[in-house]
Amino acid sequence: MPKLLKPIKITDHKYLIKIFGESLNEEEEWSILDQELGSPQRGTIDLLGVDPEKRANIITIGTKDIEQDIVRCFRGYRWFKENQEIMKRIFSPQKINYDLSVKLVLFLEQDVPDASKMVQELCRVPIDLYRYLCFGPNDNPSIYIEPLDSQRPVTAPPAGTGDKTQPSPQPEIRATAPPDIEEIKKRLKIELADLNEKEIQEFLDLDMP
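^ thats the sequence. predicted structure below, dont judge the formating
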Protein backbone atom coordinates (compact mmCIF):
# COMPACT_ATOMS: atom_id res chain seq x y z
CA MET A 1 0.00 0.00 0.00
CA PRO A 2 1.42 3.43 -0.94
CA LYS A 3 2.71 5.57 1.93
CA LEU A 4 2.34 9.31 2.30
CA LEU A 5 5.76 10.70 3.14
CA LYS A 6 5.92 14.03 4.96
CA PRO A 7 9.17 16.00 5.27
CA ILE A 8 10.58 16.40 8.76
CA LYS A 9 12.75 19.17 10.15
CA ILE A 10 16.09 18.19 11.68
CA THR A 11 17.75 21.08 13.49
CA ASP A 12 20.71 19.23 15.05
CA HIS A 13 23.51 19.95 12.57
CA LYS A 14 25.85 17.30 13.98
CA TYR A 15 23.11 14.72 13.58
CA LEU A 16 22.53 15.86 9.98
CA ILE A 17 26.23 15.38 9.25
CA LYS A 18 26.08 11.89 10.72
CA ILE A 19 23.06 10.70 8.72
CA PHE A 20 24.33 12.32 5.50
CA GLY A 21 27.68 10.57 5.96
CA GLU A 22 25.95 7.22 6.36
CA SER A 23 23.56 7.81 3.44
CA LEU A 24 26.13 9.15 0.96
CA ASN A 25 28.45 6.24 1.69
CA GLU A 26 25.80 3.99 0.20
CA GLU A 27 25.83 5.92 -3.09
CA GLU A 28 28.24 5.10 -5.93
CA GLU A 29 28.94 8.79 -6.46
CA TRP A 30 30.67 9.32 -3.10
CA SER A 31 32.90 7.57 -0.61
CA ILE A 32 33.08 9.43 2.71
CA LEU A 33 36.53 9.51 4.31
CA ASP A 34 35.95 11.65 7.39
CA GLN A 35 33.66 14.23 8.98
CA GLU A 36 33.83 17.44 11.01
CA LEU A 37 37.38 18.42 10.09
CA GLY A 38 39.05 21.79 10.63
CA SER A 39 38.63 24.52 13.22
CA PRO A 40 36.01 27.25 13.77
CA GLN A 41 38.72 29.90 13.46
CA ARG A 42 40.10 28.82 10.06
CA GLY A 43 37.28 26.79 8.49
CA THR A 44 35.47 23.51 8.93
CA ILE A 45 34.49 20.63 6.64
CA ASP A 46 31.24 18.78 7.36
CA LEU A 47 32.14 15.75 5.25
CA LEU A 48 35.27 14.94 3.28
CA GLY A 49 34.60 12.49 0.48
CA VAL A 50 35.91 11.37 -2.87
CA ASP A 51 34.16 10.56 -6.14
CA PRO A 52 34.99 7.53 -8.33
CA GLU A 53 37.99 9.44 -9.76
CA LYS A 54 39.28 9.95 -6.17
CA ARG A 55 38.74 13.70 -6.51
CA ALA A 56 38.39 15.33 -3.09
CA ASN A 57 34.81 16.48 -2.46
CA ILE A 58 34.30 19.01 0.33
CA ILE A 59 30.69 18.50 1.33
CA THR A 60 28.70 21.09 3.27
CA ILE A 61 25.30 20.28 4.77
CA GLY A 62 23.28 23.48 4.61
CA THR A 63 20.87 24.85 7.14
CA LYS A 64 18.34 27.65 6.66
CA ASP A 65 20.97 30.37 6.04
CA ILE A 66 22.32 29.99 2.50
CA GLU A 67 24.73 32.92 2.83
CA GLN A 68 26.40 31.36 5.84
CA ASP A 69 26.34 27.95 4.14
CA ILE A 70 28.26 29.33 1.14
CA VAL A 71 30.77 30.99 3.47
CA ARG A 72 31.25 27.74 5.41
CA CYS A 73 31.76 25.91 2.13
CA PHE A 74 34.46 28.38 1.02
CA ARG A 75 36.19 28.42 4.41
CA GLY A 76 36.26 24.62 4.46
CA TYR A 77 37.94 24.70 1.05
CA ARG A 78 40.50 27.20 2.30
CA TRP A 79 41.28 25.05 5.36
CA PHE A 80 41.76 22.02 3.11
CA LYS A 81 44.17 23.89 0.80
CA GLU A 82 46.13 25.41 3.69
CA ASN A 83 46.57 22.00 5.33
CA GLN A 84 47.06 19.89 2.23
CA GLU A 85 50.49 18.60 3.32
CA ILE A 86 48.97 17.32 6.55
CA MET A 87 46.03 15.87 4.63
CA LYS A 88 48.46 13.93 2.42
CA ARG A 89 49.89 12.29 5.53
CA ILE A 90 46.43 11.32 6.76
CA PHE A 91 44.87 10.41 3.41
CA SER A 92 47.43 8.96 1.01
CA PRO A 93 47.35 9.62 -2.75
CA GLN A 94 45.80 6.16 -3.05
CA LYS A 95 42.71 7.57 -1.32
CA ILE A 96 42.71 11.15 -2.70
CA ASN A 97 44.09 12.20 -6.07
CA TYR A 98 45.65 15.55 -5.15
CA ASP A 99 46.45 16.29 -8.80
CA LEU A 100 42.73 16.80 -9.49
CA SER A 101 40.97 20.03 -8.56
CA VAL A 102 38.85 19.91 -5.43
CA LYS A 103 35.07 19.90 -5.89
CA LEU A 104 32.72 21.70 -3.50
CA VAL A 105 29.35 20.05 -2.84
CA LEU A 106 26.63 22.02 -1.06
CA PHE A 107 23.35 20.48 0.09
CA LEU A 108 20.62 23.06 0.71
CA GLU A 109 17.44 22.56 2.69
CA GLN A 110 15.40 24.42 0.09
CA ASP A 111 15.54 25.40 -3.56
CA VAL A 112 16.97 28.91 -3.84
CA PRO A 113 16.19 30.52 -7.23
CA ASP A 114 19.34 31.14 -9.32
CA ALA A 115 21.66 30.13 -6.46
CA SER A 116 23.32 27.37 -8.47
CA LYS A 117 23.71 29.53 -11.58
CA MET A 118 25.11 32.46 -9.60
CA VAL A 119 27.63 30.39 -7.65
CA GLN A 120 28.78 28.39 -10.69
CA GLU A 121 29.30 31.55 -12.75
CA LEU A 122 31.39 33.24 -10.07
CA CYS A 123 33.27 30.26 -8.67
CA ARG A 124 36.40 28.88 -10.29
CA VAL A 125 36.38 25.85 -8.02
CA PRO A 126 33.89 23.21 -9.32
CA ILE A 127 30.77 23.27 -7.15
CA ASP A 128 27.55 21.22 -7.21
CA LEU A 129 24.39 22.32 -5.41
CA TYR A 130 21.61 19.98 -4.31
CA ARG A 131 18.32 20.33 -2.48
CA TYR A 132 17.52 17.82 0.25
CA LEU A 133 14.52 16.68 2.28
CA CYS A 134 14.43 14.37 5.28
CA PHE A 135 11.60 11.86 5.73
CA GLY A 136 10.55 9.29 8.31
CA PRO A 137 11.21 9.07 12.04
CA ASN A 138 13.77 11.40 13.57
CA ASP A 139 15.76 8.51 15.01
CA ASN A 140 16.12 6.79 11.61
CA PRO A 141 15.35 9.27 8.81
CA SER A 142 15.70 8.84 5.07
CA ILE A 143 17.16 11.57 2.85
CA TYR A 144 15.95 12.63 -0.59
CA ILE A 145 18.35 14.72 -2.72
CA GLU A 146 18.11 16.29 -6.17
CA PRO A 147 20.36 18.66 -8.15
CA LEU A 148 19.15 22.23 -8.47
CA ASP A 149 17.49 22.88 -11.84
CA SER A 150 20.13 25.23 -13.23
CA GLN A 151 22.75 22.47 -12.90
CA ARG A 152 21.04 20.26 -15.44
CA PRO A 153 22.79 20.16 -18.83
CA VAL A 154 21.41 22.34 -21.59
CA THR A 155 20.70 20.41 -24.78
CA ALA A 156 21.91 22.09 -27.96
CA PRO A 157 19.47 22.46 -30.91
CA PRO A 158 19.51 19.47 -33.31
CA ALA A 159 21.94 19.80 -36.20
CA GLY A 160 20.39 20.99 -39.44
CA THR A 161 17.70 23.19 -37.88
CA GLY A 162 17.34 26.87 -38.66
CA ASP A 163 17.61 28.86 -41.88
CA LYS A 164 20.95 28.03 -43.51
CA THR A 165 20.61 30.85 -46.07
CA GLN A 166 20.90 33.51 -43.40
CA PRO A 167 24.32 34.16 -41.87
CA SER A 168 24.50 33.86 -38.11
CA PRO A 169 24.33 37.26 -36.43
CA GLN A 170 27.64 38.39 -34.99
CA PRO A 171 27.60 39.13 -31.27
CA GLU A 172 27.77 42.78 -30.37
CA ILE A 173 31.03 43.59 -28.60
CA ARG A 174 30.66 46.08 -25.81
CA ALA A 175 33.23 47.56 -23.51
CA THR A 176 32.54 46.46 -19.97
CA ALA A 177 33.59 48.15 -16.80
CA PRO A 178 35.82 46.23 -14.38
CA PRO A 179 33.72 44.15 -11.97
CA ASP A 180 32.99 45.73 -8.61
CA ILE A 181 34.59 43.08 -6.42
CA GLU A 182 33.55 44.84 -3.23
CA GLU A 183 29.90 44.76 -4.29
CA ILE A 184 30.15 41.06 -5.18
CA LYS A 185 31.77 40.34 -1.82
CA LYS A 186 28.90 42.07 -0.05
CA ARG A 187 26.25 40.21 -2.08
CA LEU A 188 27.77 36.81 -1.31
CA LYS A 189 28.87 37.91 2.20
CA ILE A 190 32.35 36.63 1.39
CA GLU A 191 33.85 39.25 3.70
CA LEU A 192 32.55 37.16 6.61
CA ALA A 193 34.95 34.38 5.61
CA ASP A 194 38.03 36.55 6.32
CA LEU A 195 39.55 35.80 2.90
CA ASN A 196 42.37 37.88 1.47
CA GLU A 197 42.35 39.19 -2.12
CA LYS A 198 44.34 36.26 -3.51
CA GLU A 199 41.99 33.73 -1.92
CA ILE A 200 38.94 35.63 -3.19
CA GLN A 201 40.28 35.60 -6.76
CA GLU A 202 40.72 31.82 -6.43
CA PHE A 203 36.96 31.56 -5.90
CA LEU A 204 35.74 34.34 -8.22
CA ASP A 205 36.32 33.92 -11.93
CA LEU A 206 36.96 37.62 -12.52
CA ASP A 207 39.46 39.50 -14.70
CA MET A 208 40.92 42.02 -12.33
CA PRO A 209 42.67 45.16 -13.67
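Residues 22 and 43 are 23 Å apart (CA to CA).
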